[in-house]
Amino acid sequence: MPPHWTDQPPPTPGQCRLLHCPFYATKLKKIFGNPGLYAKAFRNSWEAEQFRAKQYDLKIFTPATLHPDYAPRITTAPTYAQAAGSDQGKRKNKPRGASATEVVRDGNNETKPPSSLPQASRRFFAPRSNPAPHALAQCMAASFPDIAAATLTDSNCLLPKGFFAKVNKRGAVSLTGTNPNTPAESYAPYFDALTRRLNQSFPVGDNPWPTFTQAPTTIQLAIHSIPTDVLPEEDDQLFTFIKNSIHNAKAVTIGSARYLNKDRTTRLSKQATSVVVSINPRRRSHPPPRPLPLLQATQSRENDAS
């Protein structure tokens, strides 16, 4: 027996049957078990302390499954997975602990793959200069993904080259990446090459496709009952005014703002109006309330009316 095991009590027959538990077979003059896997399952055990202190020479260990007395099913003692798990009969209200098999299989649970991006974040498109349907729309949808992949290869692009294409009734061509973790903006340096190949591969006449661009990923939300007397006098000042107001109140940055009623004359003839703002859907943890100054003005007017 190795000298650094002299202070370890001799294993009992039941302990020898535990899978991966290190033990020395005197008759066979071999050391069985797997200290690394056993230490992952029983972190507070004596064997785990010895493993972390690098007291084991892993080269001399033989898998316990090669022991002559090894049996997959044991009735006299619990299996390794049962010992690491929980007693379902006694702990009905407690969650089941991870078994040794799950610990070994899962490894480090902190390294998880990133969440998949929505399709809108993986899509870029090229509209026709003059919106019009294309006669070869079905052919383009079927063949352009392979043409785009070949274009990226010729450009020494290392990004994923899987796409599916669509051509709508207005002739716009869109490409959506099949890799769930690659955003469309990653392909921006290759938009010019893809557009050039698109116009060369299919007949365009006097109506070519302009350069590819990212698909919009914002959502539009309406803010109603905003008093007209608190809004800026000029329509082109609306975005700056309402952007600062919303950001100061809720720390949310909007991408655009416009009046729901575009007719300035009829809008100013009323006491309140509606504004439509666009925000990034990832920043939308809850429906954005009215901007703080606008909300205070509305509440003041309601109090005066009551």
Account of the protein in words:
The protein is α+β, with helices and mostly antiparallel strands. The chain has 3 domains: 3-88 and 101-106, no CATH class; 119-214, Alpha-Beta Plaits; 219-305. Helices cover 30% and strands 15% of the residues. It contains 10 helices and 10 strands. It has helices at 13-16, 35-41, 46-52, 80-84, 100-106, 137-154, 191-201, 238-250, 264-268, 292-305, and strands spanning 23-25, 30-32, 61-62, 123-126, 163-167, 173-177, 213-214, 219-227, 256-259, 272-279. A 4-stranded antiparallel sheet has the order 5-6-4-7, with helices on one face. Strand 5 and strand 6 (173-177) form a beta hairpin.
List strands and helices in order, with pairings.
Elements: H1 13-16, E1 23-25, E2 30-32, H2 35-41, H3 46-52, E3 61-62, H4 80-84, H5 100-106, E4 123-126, H6 137-154, E5 163-167, E6 173-177, H7 191-201, E7 213-214, E8 219-227, H8 238-250, E9 256-259, H9 264-268, E10 272-279, H10 292-305
Parallel strand pairs: 2-3
Antiparallel strand pairs: 1-2, 4-6, 4-7, 5-6, 8-10, 9-10
Helix pairs in contact: 2-3, 2-5, 6-7
